[in-house]
């Protein structure tokens, strides 16, 4: 649970070259799903490389509350003794998902078609985020939700005792919504069909197949049509969680803007539904190479090598790429500030309903650092000043948003004056070793607890 403690102000200042190997933690999306699918399967799922960030630890606690046995064996090794599809027990207390949209929305889906009732809450950020996007499709299965105005947490879900399968076209590009419907479909008899017009990260589909569910994905004129047969017996798995590309983004982007840098980020998942940032950076002229390309656990993986790139230029990032880099726009906007010319980011309305309104949070901080940002409801444009030309000297609000805090810490590594954030404590939600890892590469960050 994040954001409940004392704020941790942090300051980042210009540093010498960043060099070395950045072993970033496990993938957050895959970590949540490993715990949830482990809890819904029969037998013991063994997981290595689990991200031990607050978001995932909250999901582990929640799975215990629903009756699974979740054990931490140390060093990222965990096991989950599952209760089987439909086997969730009614929790005796409120489920606190902390700062995690993925956690709360996927768990809501997983319990929505069991005849139990559960009450969910979270921190101030999560309680401000829309849950109707999940509870609307869950209502089609027969699940009832009672929350605050605007479909906000705290919220009680009364699961459907007699669920029916659904066919649902996801109205927003969201892997969380898609996944919630699929997880609910697990305990509905018959065929649940989810259609997404724009492809979003496909970890749920891949993992459901891995756990033995009958799931079929077809690309049609309507979009990606995912068909799941309900009431499978999921079989426990052995899972090695790959390192998180969304966390790799921070040392990679830092290396591109700090003179003389040369950083290797090994073992990063390059699933095309997640790799949009790296494509964009290369289009901008980044010296970013994929080394030792291979496949691990059914996912394409490579070691990323990022070197200082003095001649970055602005690009237009197309809306079609948004889902594959949705969490990376904050740090991309920082790189854009050090490029020549405008970087246009379009089709990104979803950024306004993340842990914070990420367009607003970044635009305000970038402007305070001397960078011009124009914005509309679903777009923003950063006018780059070029390498060495970004003034900095500002204190940005992190707004309980880990990605905003880390993006501004990266910016301060290459600005003329240091850059601060009022509260870096949210960083532990997704990247608990951010501070020491960046320091080991040569970054100068004060105040870091993470
Ligand atoms: O399914 C997931 O694991 C996630 C989906 C994305 O959210 P949306 O589904 O809201 O786009 C992303 O922003 C989040 O960090 C993780
Ligand atoms: C949006 C994010 O997470 P979530 O929706 O799980 O809170 C994120 O990690 O950037």
TrEMBL record:
One of its GO terms (cellular component) is cytoplasm. GO terms for molecular function: 3-phosphoshikimate 1-carboxyvinyltransferase activity. The keyword Cytoplasm applies. Its main location: cytoplasm. Pathway: Metabolic intermediate biosynthesis; chorismate biosynthesis; chorismate from D-erythrose 4-phosphate and phosphoenolpyruvate: step 6/7. It catalyses: 3-phosphoshikimate + phosphoenolpyruvate = 5-O-(1-carboxyvinyl)-3-phosphoshikimate + phosphate. 3-phosphoshikimate binds at residues 28-29, 33, 174, 176, 327, 354. CDD domains: EPSP_synthase. Residues 16-434 form the Enolpyruvate transferase domain. Keywords: Amino-acid biosynthesis, Aromatic amino acid biosynthesis, Cytoplasm, Transferase. Pfam families: EPSP_synthase. It is found in: Cytoplasm. SUPFAM superfamilies: EPT/RTPC-like (SSF55205). GO terms for biological process: amino acid biosynthetic process; aromatic amino acid family biosynthetic process; chorismate biosynthetic process. InterPro entries: Enolpyruvate_Tfrase_dom, Enolpyruvate_Tfrase_sf, EPSP_synthase, EPSP_synthase_CS, RNA3'P_cycl/enolpyr_Trfase_a/b. Phosphoenolpyruvate binds at residues 28, 101, 129, 176, 358, 403. Monomer. Catalyzes the transfer of the enolpyruvyl moiety of phosphoenolpyruvate (PEP) to the 5-hydroxyl of shikimate-3-phosphate (S3P) to produce enolpyruvyl shikimate-3-phosphate and inorganic phosphate. Belongs to the EPSP synthase family. This is 3-phosphoshikimate 1-carboxyvinyltransferase. It comes from Loktanella atrilutea. The lineage of its organism: Bacteria, Pseudomonadati, Pseudomonadota, Alphaproteobacteria, Rhodobacterales.
